[in-house]
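Teaching assistant's notes for section 4

Start the section by putting this record on the projector. Ask students to predict, before seeing the second block, whether VCBS repeat-containing protein will look compact or extended. Collect guesses on the board.
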Amino acid sequence: MARKNYTYDSRPRYVAVADFNNDNHLDLAVANSIDANIVILLGDGNGTFSRQYTNWFYDESGPYWIGVGDFNNDTLLDIAVANYDSHDIDILRGYGNGTFSIEFTLGLGSSRPMLLTVGNFNEDNILDIAVASNGTLDLTILIGSGDGSFEIQTNYYLGHDSMPYSIDVADFNYDNKTDIMIVDYGTSNLII
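Reveal the predicted structure now:
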């Protein structure tokens, strides 16, 4: 495939890949921190994408990271957004056609969410969110209710010099429970 450049907004921070319009082609959701938006680029199945939709947030929200899952159990993909500058998490409800609307916002106090990942952390078969933050140097577990809303369950302190750089989930020790892995640039540690 030949290289293609897509120039559209300033300071893209993260991209998530999923089929947002149910056409069996992979699409892109791009978080742009400076322009305070999430851009949806629909894939046509041959490696090209067209801009479908832009979800604008209020100025200076700083969307930084995206997670994808069916948070309200309607079988359509939704998007969770870590907003670094506004200290909150937005849940964007997906309509199955590549469009979204803000369904739920959860403030995180003084935490500056940088990274998030999606998993079933309390074994209830409902998606939850793990958020790694700068400022408070913690990992926050948000427990999903199944209707698109979340509650803060617990915070784990990551360490004094912590600066989370990447996050993911898997069952690392094969105990049938979801584990969280963080690459910590500040401490040069891999935290599981």
